Amino acid sequence: MPFTVLLVDDEPLVRAGLRAVLEAQPDIEVVGEAGDGAAVIPLVNRLRPDVVAMDVRMPLMDGIEATRLVLRTVPDPPKILVVTTFENDEYVYEALRAGADGFLLKRARPAEIVHAVRLVAEGESLLFPAAVRQLAAEYGTDKARAALDRAALTDRESAVLRLMARGLSNAEIAATLVVGLETVKSHVSSVLAKLGARDRTQAVIAAYESGFVAPG
């Protein structure tokens, strides 16, 4: 079965460009479009896409609030891929904090767009650009540092979190640590549980906000 995608952007040309790129792939199907975040919930409930490619800046409801609503109200919600013009946009960071699973620049090459959708659909979030990592570090709080301390990660879990923060997939982490893929999956699940993180993205944000991982 192909991955299904809902496109949400207030610019018709952007939606048309994304549709053309994605529908050229045999394993991706665009099942719908919306011009504003306010239309997302009914479309998600009706179409049940695997991924929502969501612009962060829209006139009626932005991608941040739309992301919060999807994750709060939709059972078994889709993955959210933030799509934006500027990589250092605080809106992007707030969308990731709200629960978005990945990040994509509108000027990305077609191959990068396709890769991003596949990666998010498969549950392995994207590497944050340097500007977003810096924002996460700047938003660091004593609360975030205390939460990471309470998580009491083992040495191996700490190593896995650092590699997750670098954007490595489970297979790449397994190769780096010279362990089996199932072992890595077990460590990732443990890290998420200890941090109280919904997914990899939330765990990586916690790592930067706590100062456990430094941007750069």
From TrEMBL:
Keyword DNA-binding appears in the UniProt entry: yes
PANTHER family attached here?
Answer: TRANSCRIPTIONAL REGULATORY PROTEIN NARL-RELATED, TWO-COMPONENT RESPONSE REGULATOR
4-aspartylphosphate modification sites? D55
Which ranges carry the Response regulatory domain?
4-121
Residues forming the HTH luxR-type domain are 146-211
Write down the SMART domains for this protein, in alphabetical order.
HTH_LUXR (SM00421), REC (SM00448)
Recorded protein name is Response regulator transcription factor
* Keyword field contains Cell cycle: no
Q: Keywords on this record?
A: DNA-binding, Phosphoprotein, Transcription, Transcription regulation
Domain of life the protein comes from: Bacteria
